[in-house]
């Protein structure tokens, strides 16, 4: 961390800042410049809290240097983390496509869609049993009945399943049924839930908060890893901006940044990013081309009558086309060599 | 809701949309325009989910008309909700100032600050016992010990207390100790927590999510009211934007909008909006001038050594000045008549 | 346009709104709903200004239905516009790669880079002669001397050239030298410049403003087309958001949206979106995969000593790799058929 | 500036960075930390361009320390700049209220409104003669005829006038007629226009770009001051964010930040920030309470029939109320002492 002093800072103020740094167990290194003094903060393990110094008299600015995450960083673990779930492999050159409806609505619905997506090439099946909804008056999911249907889907199709957990109380139940546990965008900084996920025996798919920086997202993953669970998949799903032609703005650049900073696999959910069916295929192609380790896509055999997110769900035939296209791009990139990614 | 068709939409597509509307129990009203057809959706109680129709063939756009919240709306309850906690009154012309440290660090710290802020004019005391922190390596709060210290503060000073609840598991405990239960910005759409808060016997202070629209925020409050708890205070604390001179961007316009749309009181937290001490007093003045029903301000007797958020905590003398200034503005506005707000 | 009335709106207020609509030459169509009245505004050519009605008493909201652009819309011209400049073709299945330095620094620099990029597969050469710089103390470009160097590059390599115009005064000069005239992100709503570009004899490449919606961007293109110049290329270059790991956030979804709404070709500038060299290749792959008609990339033979934007300029060898990769993706997508895009 | 190296950076990479710094005429100061090396860049006048170093091998991050603006900074000129225009004084404790219609529509309209606002307490009259409009089909202003009407207003009422200039070609004309020259939000980084404004003999009111940081805004003002014109007024008018209940999000915190960083006066335009009449008065109160040196407000005697921006224009009676309210707040704050601001 670097503390930048006002041009007019007095020696007394500078000394007070140095004292404050040392009192906290760090080493202070004054760096006189042309115009003003800066003070380096050294010997810190991990990041120092900028707010500890920002308010001291004579301090103009505090500039963080070290990132705060550790276990999730590539500096800590240079090799890619690989997640294996039944036949699916995610990470280190392996791509997985997760597909299914927004919400599990009935056994027949789930099975119908599962057969479609399996045939088209999906590696895992998604479907919500507990649904986070903006309105208390919207369909909230089938709960445990939905989980049982998901288990049935797995039994019938052999596809591993992923579903969202919304709270501590139902965590055990979701953990029991699901192959991958999803933590949604609205819970990315639900730290109690993250801590519980740190003790889970199943991989966790952590969606990016809709206003989270990559640092905050990786810190949320750090909560899970710090609890002992090293099986974390990161999922970019669009961030909130002024842009109004899609529900969220897909931040494709998150892919190269996460791949550089972290060893964890990163997948993309183009359906929630777009919020409109007609953008899902182009965004899927873009995601795989950018180097994502997988996709999570909403598919419904009858989206016009879906109980939620119908507008962004693909028809089965569209999903088949998506699979063919991203598969070609993926093979192309991997044939031309991993170093290109 | 209004469904706008493509210029090139066929009669068959139009009929299919009408069928889809009626199948869901609504009334469809075609509105032929110069260039294209629009279709109104009528007889709906509350909002209709736009995504139900956005994906249908021939549909260009879906335009929501009715807002989805009900219990929180001023159309539902024209009179201001007033929250009374010990001697403090919030809403309908009554302003309350909530002050205290970011985190309860020790009994002596909490009592020292409480005495300062009470003397300066604070109506309620704040202090975190359970702290949501971006990093798992940061101080996470004293937990129940912190709650006991808060109870001691109330006993000694007579000030009502407010503290944050982070999860279902510790909700009972927080509810027992605290006079007002705070739900933090990162949990604004933690729906399990909101549902639990709906059964709480204490008022709830619901902070705005850092990327939440006012509609989403009011819908989160609707979750609480729908559970039976009518005592909700809304707290604006800045939203996340590209702006980089403050930690968040205080959205002052939330005050007139919430006051128009809802009967619930709205207060402002300038400390988290700014993230820097030197903006807190001007933002406090602005908030009260805009018509806020109160402020929540971080104060520390020794911010240079605070365990969290030191940079944004006011010194006691600054807080005294803040109280004097906002009190004058408040009186001025209320003497010139409520109709001006 | 749809005007939504308050639930409590009186018949008198409704009548006043209807009168106001008709006074402006439109047709008013009242649409009684369950709870409240809405009023459709019909017989309007193009969009009606929402602000004309938003302030009337009893009006809760005004909802635009028709988009305001006309000449740029696909509804107006269903076939793709194709831009041809020397050997380069942009649009309708033709992709072009534009490459070169941020600024023209010298003849030797420009020629060296031009040879590199031509050999690697670039179709057009870019280079700034007039540079918009945040600081008045930064290098502002070589001016006309830079334009002469660009002409020399064209003469020597046969590549068409593109360079930015910053104002009316130098427009004639830029138009004389350059094959494509670029209007930069900061001038997207410099309407005087757009009007001048409407009379230009050369194609115009219009960069998206960093906080512009697609509607505003297309309206800016409408200014140019309305002046008579139908040769417009749209260039997405990232928008400003809270995200801090790249200089701007590349909005890949702009590609499918623009391709759907407009007949104009859309290219992507990944260099300015990223602001960092290590994101440029992944973003380029993503852009072409999403369906962009081209790329504009910064390349420098000695970026460590570039006079501007060195950090985001590719080394020539990186640019070669980029060309190989995007070329493969482009061919792949076009072999699998245009309907997939 | 501080250059942070990768943990794995080699000594050779470090030496190369040091060489690169020194080659540019700066002094390099290596700062070894616990984990990694950082390198300070010293002896620089003004800011160093981060992009010069960000792309070098082994460099993880580049951290700017010094701000780039000079003439506009309070470090350069500690005393407040004061702008005097006829009877109006802006800055250093003097507040001015600028009011009038969005666009000058006719002599009778302008005079009618001018009389209203003068009587209510306005210090200056605003009105657009050249109007920047998103659509080429919207009313573009009366041009020189509008300027003549403004001159008539000045003659009849004695109020100084302010109007927007859109380009170089009409600059002389606007400069001749207007007392203050306004540069609009869309032209904040129209550097050709800024340079021309640097030679103007009249004060310039520079609106903040809708996606501009304060640094960029002050740098734009630096362009004007660097040209020799020291009479610059900064005008905050809301920034573009995801927030959808107002047209833009008023960034009130810009007031204390600008007042701290710069000696230039800052005023607020609540009308364009809100885009809706019902937020204008609360935002005006908030602005003055935050310490703004003035307001620019749209007023129309018949907003329902205004040719532009009717929805955000106040009725004369509302403007009277606004003046009374902000005047009271202003007096209150200045009686309690300037040091509170």
UniProtKB/TrEMBL annotation, chains A, B, C, D:
DAHP synthase ferredoxin-like domain span: 1-66
Residues of the DAHP synthetase I/KDSA domain: 83-326
InterPro entries in alphabetical order: Aldolase_TIM, Class-I_DAHP_synthase, DAHP1/KDSA, DAHP_snth_FXD, DAHP_syn_2
Keywords from the UniProt entry: Transferase
Keyword hit for Nucleus: no
Pfam families in the record: DAHP_snth_FXD, DAHP_synth_1
MF annotations from Gene Ontology: aldehyde-lyase activity; transferase activity
Membrane in keyword set: no
UniProt signal peptide: none
Gene Ontology biological process: aromatic amino acid family biosynthetic process
The protein's name: Phospho-2-dehydro-3-deoxyheptonate aldolase, Tyr-sensitive
Taxon lineage: Bacteria, Pseudomonadati, Thermodesulfobacteriota, Desulfobacteria, Desulfobacterales
Gene field: aroF1
């Amino acid at each position: 961390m670097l503390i930048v002093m006002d041009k007019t800072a007095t020696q007394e103020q500078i000394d007070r800042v140095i004292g404050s740094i040392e009192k906290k167990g760090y080493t202070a290194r004054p760096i006189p410049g042309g115009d003003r003094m800066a003070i380096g903060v050294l010997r810190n393990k991990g990041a120092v809290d900028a707010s500890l110094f920002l308010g001291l008299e004579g301090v103009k600015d505090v500039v963080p240097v070290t990132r705060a995450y550790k276990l999730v960083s590539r500096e800590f673990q240079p090799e890619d983390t690989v997640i294996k779930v039944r036949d699916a492999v995610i990470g280190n050159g392996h791509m997985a496509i997760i597909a299914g409806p927004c919400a599990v609505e009935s056994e027949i619905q789930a099975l119908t869609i599962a057969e479609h997506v399996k045939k088209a090439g999906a590696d895992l099946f998604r479907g919500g049993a507990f649904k986070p909804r903006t309105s208390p008056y919207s369909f909230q999911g089938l709960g445990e009945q939905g989980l049982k249907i998901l288990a049935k889907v797995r039994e019938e199709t052999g596809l591993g399943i992923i579903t969202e957990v919304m709270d501590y109380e139902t965590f055990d139940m979701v953990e029991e049924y699901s192959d991958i546990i999803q933590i949604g965008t609205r819970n990315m900084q639900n730290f109690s839930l993250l801590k519980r996920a740190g003790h889970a025996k199943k991989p966790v798919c952590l969606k990016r908060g809709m206003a989270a920086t990559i640092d905050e997202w990786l810190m949320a993953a750090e909560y899970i890893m710090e609890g002992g669970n090293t099986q974390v998949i990161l999922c970019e799903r669009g961030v909130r901006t002024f842009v109004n032609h899609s529900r969220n703005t897909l931040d494709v650049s998150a892919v190269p940044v996460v791949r550089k900073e972290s060893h964890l696999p990163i997948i993309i959910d183009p359906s929630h990013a777009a919020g409109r069916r007609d953008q899902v295929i182009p965004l899927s192609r873009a995601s795989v081309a950018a180097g994502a380790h997988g996709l999570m896509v909403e598919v419904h055999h009858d989206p016009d009558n879906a109980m939620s997110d119908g507008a962004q769900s693909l028809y089965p035939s569209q999903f088949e086309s998506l699979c063919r296209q991203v598969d070609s791009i993926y093979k192309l990139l991997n044939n031309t060599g991993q170093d290109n990614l």
